[in-house]
Amino acid sequence: MAKKKYIISVIQLNLDNTPENNLVKCTEWVKKAASKGAEVILLPELYSSHYFCQSEDTENFALAEPLYGTSFKAFSALAKELGVVIIVPFFEKRMAGVYHNSAYIIDTDGTEAGLYRKMHIPDDPHFYEKFYFTPGDLGFKNIPTKKGNIGTLICWDQWYPEAARLTALQGAEVLFYPTAIGWHPQEKEEFGEKQHGAWMNVMKGHAVANGVYVAAANRIGLEKYLPDTNGIEFWGSSFICGPQGEILAQASNDQEEILMAEVDLDLQENVRQNWPFLRDRRIDMYGSITKRAID
Known about the structure:
With 295 residues, the chain is of the alpha/beta class. The protein has helices at residues 19-35, 70-82, 161-169, 188-210, 265-274, and strands spanning 5-12, 40-42, 85-95, 98-106, 112-117, 143-144, 149-152, 174-178, 182-183, 213-217, 220-223, 232-235, 239-241, 247-250, 257-264. InterPro entries: Aliph_Amidase/BUP, C-N_Hydrolase, C-N_Hydrolase_sf.
């Protein structure tokens, strides 16, 4: 039976364009987090490479890996060795021409507790993900692990209350968001504060509306690998918040860090009892939510 309390951790890192380097680096940081007492550990989105979606280039498909390949083997062995749950976001090659932005949820015994494929795929300047990723087809899921019930969503999924709600309604106690988000350097002065604030506020809102913990792991650093561009300055600021949106741990904009926080299921229940938002949902009136627009 899962415990009433457990420790979750997010790891904020700078990542380069060499998968072998990133695998070694992430392995060491997971070990550090586990040594500090972390029981469920989250890595940033697409951990094994730089953020290649800044361009549309077929050569980047070579960065993808098949299911249960290098990443799964390495982190499965590590999860079993350390007795922790590890959330491993990776570039999945499902078959020739079909690729996903995915995440393994690996349980404490090294087995796969679940697989999530990113559902919402952006297409913005230098975030050209639709070129690479087929939208997920596994749905939104609560994933039971030996530490607790967790839900994994990925980056652009952060902006959608429907994704958070459907995951929470299945019993997820924590929503984990592996992330790769940052500023266009030329826009930072004018828009940066508002963009960053919106990112945090929408996820804190998911925590409040659903009475769940939320944890986001971002990357840091200026990734400028394309000629004649300003690159993306990843803003870090990884965080963990509680079921009232309260910040439990917050990272810097520019340092590699490990964040830790305790998930307290008695507290979660108390919050939901006193703020019974789930009780008062008017599910009889929400049929139109599945329409693109209500004309």
